[in-house]
Design goal:
Elements (H helix, E strand, L loop, with lengths): L18 E6 L5 E8 L5 E7 L2 E9 L5 E7 L2 E9 L5 E7 L2 E9 L5 E7 L2 E9 L6 E7 L2 E9 L3 E8 L2 E10 L3 E12 L14 E13 L5 H28 L23 H7 L8 H5 L13
Antiparallel strand pairs: 1-2, 2-3, 3-4, 4-5, 5-6, 6-7, 7-8, 8-9, 9-10, 10-11, 11-12, 12-13, 13-14, 14-15, 15-16
């Protein structure tokens, strides 16, 4: 769902510049508490400083969306809650109009993500919960995708391993509540897209993760030395990921809004014991993404207030 037309704006050049009731400073700029009705019929009620929204305020869009939180220099900055027209909601930190820092997003289908954000995208450590089944992914995210060490936790078992480009890759294990675990390895199988355009030579291949299962054994309880070794390994991996991100940011000149998140994920093969349950879990493979990408536009174009 697109929220175009929900941009916050107060345009002095519009034939009708709206109404304002509230405090002003010696330069006749809006200053202190005030109420404004904008030319597009949006409303703002809150604090101003030298003509700009600054401090606590509530901005109501004509399409039903609203933001309640902190402003700095006309931008959402600090703690705030944004309620979108479709009923989804973000509660958390903002930096210069972007979801950034720690926050919780509740999607229209009742799925939730709670964790770290950067540039409107899930980035850092976070937990995505699928409302329909209660399945959770707990782990690392990079630019909206699962990346690095993570756990996919189901009702009676979980997968523990490494994710790459939102899919499991490499060595990992399934741990079952009955007291056993199965080690194995995910490999990526590339498949050509059936709907690939004839002139689309650079289209990325369709990658499907395949589980190469090992033996099922009793659950191995790690010693302190093994836990430390695993933590060190994860720390080194995260450090390498961060270095890679920094290099990628230096090389890339594209704005973050152009980096799309995938909307589907190929089915992961499960151990033989979990084949039937795996069919149900396929629906949970991909977090809610489209709403989040579409909503990035609505918070990035605030203009200066009218006098």
């Amino acid at each position: 769902m697109s929220d175009l037309g929900s941009d916050e704006m107060e345009d002095e050049q519009h034939p009708y510049i709206g109404e304002y009731e509230g405090g002003r400073n010696e330069n006749d700029e809006r200053h202190g508490f005030g109420k404004a009705t904008l030319a597009n019929q949006d409303t703002y009620e809150g604090m101003y400083e030298k003509g700009k929204r600054n401090g606590q305020g509530t901005y109501r869009f004509r399409n039903g969306a609203r933001y309640i939180g902190e402003y700095a220099q006309n931008q959402k900055h600090g703690q705030g809650t944004f309620i979108y027209p479709d009923g989804s909601k973000y509660e958390g930190n903002w930096v210069k109009d972007q979801r950034c820092g720690f926050g919780k997003y509740t999607y229209v289908n009742a799925d939730t993500y709670e964790g770290e954000w950067q540039d409107h995208l899930r980035h850092g450590q976070g937990t995505y919960t699928y409302a329909q089944t209660g399945t959770k992914y707990v782990g690392r995210w990079v630019r909206g995708k699962r990346e690095g060490h993570g756990e996919l936790i189901h009702a009676n078992h979980k997968y523990v391993g490494v994710f790459k480009e939102d899919k499991p890759l490499g060595k990992g294990k399934y741990v079952f509540d009955i007291g056993c675990e199965q080690h194995g390895e995910y490999i990526h199988i590339e498949q050509e897209k059936e709907d690939k355009a004839a002139d689309d030579e650079e289209a990325s291949p369709n990658v499907t993760p395949k589980w190469n299962a090992g033996q099922v054994t009793a659950i191995h309880l790690q010693t302190e030395e093994e836990e430390r070794a695993e933590e060190e390994s994860q720390g080194e991996q995260q450090s390498e990921e961060q270095q890679g991100e920094q290099q990628g940011e230096q090389q890339s000149e594209q704005p973050s809004e152009q980096q799309q998140e995938p909307t589907t994920e190929s089915k992961e093969e499960k151990p033989a014991e979990e084949q039937q349950e795996g069919q149900n879990e396929e629906k949970e493979a991909e977090p809610e993404q489209t709403q989040e990408e579409e909503k990035t536009e609505e918070t990035t174009q605030e203009q200066a207030d009218e006098d």
